[in-house]
Write a structure and sequence with these properties.
Blueprint lengths: L1 H5 L3 H28 L8 H18 L9 H13 L5 H5 L3 E7 L4 E5 L2 E4 L7 H12 L12 E5 L5 E5 L9 E5 L8 H6 L5 H12 L4 E5 L5 H9 L8 E5 L11 E5 L13 H8 L6 E4 L6 H10 L6 E5 L3 H14 L6 H11 L2 E7 L5 E13 L2 E11 L4 E4 L5 H6 L5
Parallel strand pairs: 7-11, 7-12, 8-9, 8-10, 10-11
Antiparallel strand pairs: 1-2, 1-6, 2-3, 4-5, 5-6, 12-13, 13-14, 14-15
InterPro entries: AAA+_ATPase, P-loop_NTPase, T2SS/T4SS_dom, T4SS_GSP_E_ATPase
Family: Belongs to the GSP E family.
Organism: Photobacterium galatheae
Length: about 425
Amino acid sequence: MGNDMMWPSREVMIQQEESSLALKAELHRYIIEQLEEDGLMFEMERQEMQPHVHDYVRQYFQQHKELNQRQNMEALVGELLDEIVGFGPLQNLLDDPQIDDILINGPKQIYVERSGQLSRIPLRFMNDQHVLRVIRRMIAPIGRRIDESNPMVDARLPDGSRINAVIPPLSIDGPCLSVRKFKKEGLTADTLIQNGAMSLGMHQLLKKCAQARFNILISGSTGSGKTTLLNILSHYINTGERVVTIEDAAELQLRNGHVVRLETRPPNSEGQGEVTARDLLKNALRMRPDRIILGESRGAEVLDVLQAMNTGHQGSMSTLHANSPRDALVRLEMMVTLAGFTSTESLIKQIIATAIDLIVQVSRLPNGKRVITHIVEVQDVADEKIRTQELYQYNPQTDDFMTVDGMSVHLRKKLGEDG
C-alpha cells in the first residue's frame, strides 16, 4: 500500500502533462509577442535565438511568481526553440539517427520505426492546430499549402526526408503526418551482408549484373528496402556512363560522376503545372542517357521505360510495389495495359520478357529484418506465360540463402562467362 502512494496515478500524470502543455503554449505565445515587440521576428539561426528565448522564459516566470517552476529551464528553452525555429515535438525525432519513420495519427498518437520495429512513444501535440502548424511550417518553404480545399499534400524537406499529410475532413481523428526520413549515409553492400540481408554470393551476382548492364527490377512492399538496394546497385555503374534518374522525391545517392537528376512536380492549388514521371521519362530519352533509373514504376511511365530497355538503354533499373516476382510481372502487364497500349497479351508479355533481365525481391520480415528473398532471371514467353528461373531464394526456417537454379546460357554469355 505504501508503494502505491509513492507513484502518481495515471489521472495525476495526465493532469501534469496537460498542465505542462498549457504552460508551453502560453510561453510560446508570450515569446512570439516579445520577439515582435523587440523587433526580432526575422530569420535567425537557432543559436542566435537561444539567449533571447532564455531571457523571455526567465522574465515570464518572474512576472508569474505564483507558478511553481519545476521545469528544467534548459529543456524548456530547447522545446520552445523547436516550436519557433524547428518542427515542434518532431524536431528531436527528426534529429535522431536511429529513427527511420515518424507517424502521427492525430495529436495524441505518435509512432516511430526503429530497426524495422514500429512502436508508440509518449509524445503529444497540444491539439489539432498544433499538428497543423507544424505541417504548414514543413511545406511552406516549397510553396505548398494544405487546407480544407486541399487536404492532402506530399512534400520533401530540405534534408531530403519525404512527408505526406492528410487533414480533416479526410482524416477523421485529426491531422495525420507521415515522415520517411532521408539517410545521409546510405547503407553499403557490406552492411547488408553483415545484417543477413543477402549472402556474399548474391552480392557478387548482383554486382556483376549491374556492371554488365542488366536491366534490373527491384520488387517489394513499402519500407522493405527497395531504394536502399537500388542505391547500392547504382554504385556499380561505370563512371563513363551518362545516367538519368527520375523520382517523385529525390532519394538516390549515385556516386557515378555523370548523373542528371530529375524530379516530378505535383499540380499547384489550381491543378496546374503537374509534371509526371512519364513526362520526364519521355524527355530523358532526348537527353542521350546510357542508363535510366526510375525511382518507382507505378503508372503509365512503365510502358516507356520498358521500351527504353528494349531500344538500347541497357542497364536501366527501377523499383515496383509487389509481394513476389510473379506478382511484379503481373503488375507490369496491368500497368502497360492501363497506359493505353492496345495490343495482345502475348505481345505485352514479350515486351516485358525481353526488357527485364532480373527481378530482385526484397521483403521486411515480421521481426523487422529486411532481406532479399528471391533473385529471379526473366527468360522468355512460352505457353502464354513469362518464363522465369529462380537463382537465389531465402529460407526463413534456416534464416539463410540457397542457390536454386543456375543462370541460363543467355545470361552467362551476357556476363561474359562460358555457357
